[in-house]
Each structure stands twice: as structure tokens, then as C-alpha cells.
Amino acid sequence: MASTPKRRIKNPKHSSSYPRLSSIEPPPSLLPSMPEFFKLFAVVSIAVTVAIGCNYVVTVFNRQLKPFCNSDTEFDYHLSDTCESCPSHGICTEGKLECVSGYRRYGRSCLEDGNINEMVKNLAKMVESHTCESYSQYLCKGVGKVWVQGDELWNDMDKDNATYQFAKQKAMEIVGNLLETRHAGTGIKELKCPDLLVEHYKPLTCSIHLWLLEHALFLVPCCVLFVGFGLMLQRVRRRHYLSVRAEELYEQVCDILEERALNSRSMNGEGEPWIVASLLRDHILTPRERRDPLLWKKVEDLVQEDFRVDRYPKMLKGESKVVWEWQVEGSLRSSGKKNKDNLNKQKHSEESNLVFNQDLRRLKPGELLRC
């Protein structure tokens, strides 16, 4: 029977003499600390920035700009490495750039000059105003010109300055598109303000005058009809006024004549029952109504149609006067007037009694006893 092998027991002393791998740590001086790391990063960044800047400066100073290609040369500028294409509105000769009139050089390009643009607008506006004002004076006053020669305008403003000549050329293009143009028999170009544009240059009074002349055939019949309608309306109103006012005056005349007759009868015939018609007219008419003879004529017509009034001449102080007299006998007007007066008196007495009763109700018992 085989014997089982025995395990060797390790000596703890020998095992403790070998160090463990997990317990091995790097020395603290091997890696830099956090402040030292930030300092190193800052130094490296500054060095890189300086290197890039120096490289850019050297590149810029060492680089030479390409010359401009001549304007009259015919080849593809984009495929050429020896020269740069000439910019628009520029003239290039022997590699140099010059801008045309009306443009200024900004770097390696030509941009439009703002001062010249303002000059162009002023010249165009000056020509427009002169042409349109001349046409408006012709339409309003019959003086001035319809077509204005362009040479007359430009010769008055002609100058030898190259900049001014360029502005003049641009202004002529604007005016040619804005105004009407034609060529006279001598070959001179003439300008005319359009009808829509000349309306802005006409004074208000002139515009109204021209409008009236243009629509005269329509306005004259309308004015005649309007005036005729106004006269007819005024005539109808006057007739109505005379009719109403004459009836009012006629009522007053009847009241006065009837009262005069009743008073004369009550005085046993001592008073005069008649009244002079002219005196009665001056009594009831206002000074303004006396100037209208037609009003009193209508009153006389109404009195003449009334059989209760007698009209006869009478000699007064050696002059013949027409007098009017009311006939008391058989008159229905006096009875109606009396009934009306009685009704008014009765109504007035009833109103007085009603007010007296209301005052009595307001009084206190003590005050009533003292009264």
C-alpha cells in the first residue's frame, strides 16, 4: 500500500522575506504636481502662439502681390498665376490700377463715389424742375415752352472738369428715362415734362382753373339747373311766407276792427267804429314789412273778400281816406270770440283754485290757526 505524499509546510519566516507586488508604490517625486503642470501648459501655449505669429509675419512680408493684368489683354485671368484680373470699373496698365470717373479705389477694387452720385441727382433734379416749370407756366399762363432744348440746359451748366462731365453724362441718362424726348429737325435733342409729372408743379389755383375749363360743357348746364332750382325754391318759399303772414295780419285786422266796433257800440255811438286803412297798416306792420307792398296787397284782398268788413272813402281833414268798418250785427266772430274768452277765464280760475288748494295743504295746522 503506497504511502500518501506529505505536503510541505512553508516556513513563514522565509515567506515574509519577499515583498508583495501590491505594496510597491512610485516615489512622490516622479510625477509633477498640479501647479507645476499648469505652469508647463502656459509656457508651451505662449511658445506655440509666438511661433505661429512669427510665421505669419514672415509669410506676409515675404509674399509679393500679383500685378494687375492689362485691360486690353485677352486671356483667362483666372488661369493665370502671373497677374491678377483687372476689377470692374477699372483700367489696368502695366500692372497698375486706375478707376474710371465716378469711382474711387478702395484696396484692389473700384467702388462708386458717393459725392458724384449726389452731383448726378442734383443735376437731374435741376433739369427736371426747369422743364416741368416751363411747361406748367405754359398751361397756366400761356407763357413758357412745352419742349425745352437740352443743349440750352447743359450749356448753362457746362464745365471742363472731368468729374463734372461724368456726372453730366449720368444725369442725361436719368433725364432721358424720366422725361419725354424728341429730336428736332436740326438734330437737337428736346425735352418735355410728362403730363402726370407736371401736375406736381402746378399751383392749386391753376389746377382748379384748368379743371373748370376742362369740364365747362358739363358744369355750365349743371350750374344753370342749380340756379334755376334755387330761384324756384326761393319763389315757392316766398309765396308760402306771404300767404301765411297775410292770414296772420288779416286775423289781427279783424280783431282790431271788431273790438273798435264793440267799443263804439258800448259808448252809445260816441266813438268812431271805423279805422283808416293806411293807419291800421302802419300800426300792425313792421318797418321791414312796410317795404313789401305785395304783403299788404294780399291782406287787402282777404279783407275785400270778407263781407263783414265795409270799405268806403271818407273825407278827413280835406283828404279822402279809405276806412274799414266792422259790421257788428249778425257777426259770428264776436260770439265765437266771447266763448273763447270765457273758456280761457274758466281755465285760468280753475288753475288758480288748484294752486291755492296746494298751498293750503302745505301749511301746518298751527300756522293755519294763526292765519
TrEMBL record:
Man1/Src1-like C-terminal domain location: 65-326
Keyword terms: Membrane, Nucleus, Phosphoprotein, Transmembrane, Transmembrane helix
Sequence intervals crossing the membrane: 37-58, 210-233
Cellular component terms (Gene Ontology): endoplasmic reticulum; nuclear inner membrane; nuclear periphery
This protein's record includes keyword Isomerase: no
Record-level Gene Ontology MF annotations: chromatin binding
InterPro entries associated with the record: Heh2/Src1, Man1/Src1-like_C, MAN1_winged_helix_dom
Name assigned to this protein: Man1/Src1-like C-terminal domain-containing protein
Organism: Mikania micrantha (bitter vine)
